[in-house]
Records
---
Amino acid sequence: MASITAPTVAMQPKSRPAIGWLLHDGMVVAKRNLIQTVRVPEAIFFSLVQPVIFVLMFAYVFGGAIPIPGADPDAGAQAYREFLVPGIFGQTVAFAAASSTVGLAEDLHKGIIDRFRSLPMAPGAVLFGRTAADALRQILVLVVLSLTGLVVGWRIHNGALSAIGAYALLVLFAYTVAWVGAWVGLHMPNPETASTAGLIWIFPLTFLSNAFVPLAGMPPVIKTIAEWNPVSSLCLACRELFGNPTGEPPGGWNVWSLDHAALYTVLSCVVVIAIFSALAVRTYRRSTG
Amino acid sequence: MTPSTADAAIHAEGLVKHFGDVKAVDGLDLTVPYGTVVGLLGPNGAGKTTTVRILATLLRADAGHATVAGIDVASKPDAVRRSIGLTGQYAAIDEYLTGRENLDMVGRLYHLPSAYVKKRADELLERFALSDAADRPAKTYSGGMRRRLDLSASLMATPAILFLDEPTTGLDPRSRLQMWEVINDLVADGTTVLLTTQYLEEADQLAQDIVVIDRGKVIAHGTSDELKTQVGGDRLEIVVTAGSELGAAAASLRAVSDGDATIDDDTRRVTAPVSGGSTVLVDAVRSLDAAGIKIDDLVLRRPTLDDVFLTLTGHAAEEVAAPAPTTGRRRGRKEA
């Protein structure tokens, strides 16, 4: 049947340098993952419900009970709410890893990774596309969360440029944990395990930090862990950039990671991306060599 | 098969693949000349899928050597991928994308020019009767439509060599017939096809050469006629009313059959290889009547995969213990 095999227009594959194909193929895959988001709006809706509930719950339940070091004592619950909202941002973007883990486990399970592997595409593209889409999706989540924050009394005090810087850090962090999530997802035996066991590490990552409470009250060992947890530096950097209460004790942080919060966050992201993108691409390729 | 190996579309020698303790493929040799269809026939766990996955560059063999389109699959997987299309056991399509978006994505990942991708997708959607559903998410497709879309995706780059791994497993009879028609069209156009199937009838319909594999080894190959001759024509199957008469029934069938009858106590069934068409039925009824054996059922049928296996290996197809490496778990893990 001529219509099946005889090409009617030029079909010679295009030629392009390897890095160009990686970008091209990564974008094709990212587009696919973003279309999924649009087609399954309930998935993104429910991924928003949890952080929105957190904002409301923490803001109104714990609000008055958690004093923020360095904040105006008269501000009370209002100070906590402004402290809290960037913390919820940090916690939420850390969960970008979840969609990478579960998404890749599902793709493996459904055989679509086999399809990709049988194509002459750039080997890392499936992972680059997946992590990029998962990070981009967080922009929408951050918009909704920011609106919720405004409702409970959170404000941006330092102008648009600083705020853009804070959002950029958050998206970079989402992209970083997406790579860790991708690596985890490639090791999951099935989507069910991925959506439970594959996400366990995210909880200590976000709770052993200053996302919800100031570091000052933490026991020594936990405090040290939290001080060096990039989630803490991310939340602190955002608080500084937004001009929100930071919870800095009167004597200062006295720890490099928090004295240079934005820099430490960016460095951590670069290192983690370098390590986990290499690991994940290796795992993805290993069978085919 | 006459192995003129140098210019074969697919050639494999001594392929071995382990999954832990299980030897999924155990010294398999295979040659598929250009323009032919070879059917890889075997039960679940025989090593069919593993073999296809090695040849399609999804898995690395532990030992052995294979070329596809004359290119070594282990050392130049990317070059092989440019020449092949693969349709697996599960429709590997994205169910949230529409049919057209799925084909567009695959075409772009083959690095084909945009204009060609668009045109080709339209052609394939039209050819596979998916035009009306082209802009609906694939989630809404029936099983048969998903398989056709999956096959269309494999054909985006017009590959010279196509791997079809159990292309009709799980399809209803009508969709199966549609798939057969589509595959036959491809073959008529000169596409080389390696097809795996559990159904002798399917191999018979589609393949010129059939390679029967069991426990990772080739146990027979030849044309469908050659195999059937080897297996011995048709099968006569009777179900006796009283289980106590099974032995007597088997004995009385000996007069009309070509070989020993097999007895299944649980189903009170006696199966015997026969030849000579429907006259055998008459002879069998006479013979059973003369022996005073009452029967509930009497059937003359074509040999099935079970019969092939029983004849060639002495064990039934279902008894094979090794699980097929087809689950997500194996896909995701065992290869790593």
---
Amino acid sequence: MKVSIDDVVLPGDYCEDIVNAGEKSKVILGPGLRKEIDKVYITKSGVLRKRAPNTYWVDSYQKRYVPSRAENVIGVVVQKAGDTFRVDVGGSCTATLSYLSFEGATKKNRPEVQVGDVLYAKMLIASKDMEPELVCVDSHGKKGRLGVLNDGFVFKCSLNLVRKVLSPNCPLLNSLKNEWPFELAVGMNGRIWIKAKTMRETIAVGNAILGCEYLSDSEIKSMCTNIASLLAGHVS
Amino acid sequence: MGIEEEKPKAFQLKPMKCEFNFLSKSDGSAILSQGDTVAVVSVNGPLDIKSTSQSIEKSTLEVLYCTKGGKPSVADRYKENVIRQTCEAAVLGSLYPRTGITVTIQELEDFGGLLSCCLNCTCLALLNSGVSMRCTYAAITCAIDESGDIVLEPSKQHLDTARATMTFVFDSREKNLVTSVTEGVFSEDTYKEALARCHAASDLVFNFYREIIRKYANVI
């Protein structure tokens, strides 16, 4: 079936608008789109979106992570193998992480990473034919916010929720950050790490995030005030 | 498709109801009822599988079918095979080499047309899981009764007395025939007529898919 921008699409549909735009200038096909000979076909169900000038993608529901380059993810170290660590990021196979890709690491000065540690890392290589590779430094050799996450609490959620939380339009983090202090790391692989002062506060942040998946912006704001007042003990 | 114009009201299918994410832990799941026939499907993947069953060029599809009684039989293996081959035609496995996709089907109620219900439910669960697909597909069952008439989506009573039953699967791109499963005795002309009728009825299933996705797209 022929579809256009902002339509609900199913796999097997094709979009002529993209082909027409492609004749004039370069277009970028995001997730859920695939070029076959002279047509652009949809491969995922959801809503076809466009961002000016020429980026197209399909907003779809997904829980399973498929690694892609330059995404920040949260992984768990499952094995130390010689000079690399194997990190479980939720994809189809574990990712590798060299011990040299930490800030200030040398052959003599190895980073202190144990099996079972939680890491916040960036995907350096992610292709369907190769094992994904992670790094914990940026291109200047600085760690920035990447590295081992100590203490805290990790939980899993759908990839849509992660995108929603990270979206600049989402009021969730803006409303929560004024209520009580906490640290948060959101991995694009559907894992979220939280660290707050007490267990009550940690659980409150977790519930707020999980609760906002199907709520509108105004509902999220009222939920956050609700949770904050519950936590402060005004309402029992 | 001359038949469609003559009898537009004959293309009423049993009411279909569907719910996504019926199972919380699997990557994609759906429950579908077509009339009184109900099936649940869970899809997991792409995930790691043992290296003997890995394929370097495409993902390996594994289909498990559980009956209500739980006892596996040869007929179930055959059904698994039919569903696996249909799914393989629809899923873009080449995007996930050396991985496995597991499809688990549980029969809940069988009041006729279970195979087509399972196939449609599998398609919906695959859509929910976010696995890249070449196209969607729709399955329609029909029966040829004693007098040689074609009954779309037959009930259990119809199936008990039917001379033959047929299940056809069509893809959503060109509406081509993907799978055809037949049982019993029938003439070539009857087969062609049944095929044409099911072909026309498949549009209703595709419309239903789109409605369901539209409903769920509101909350993404």
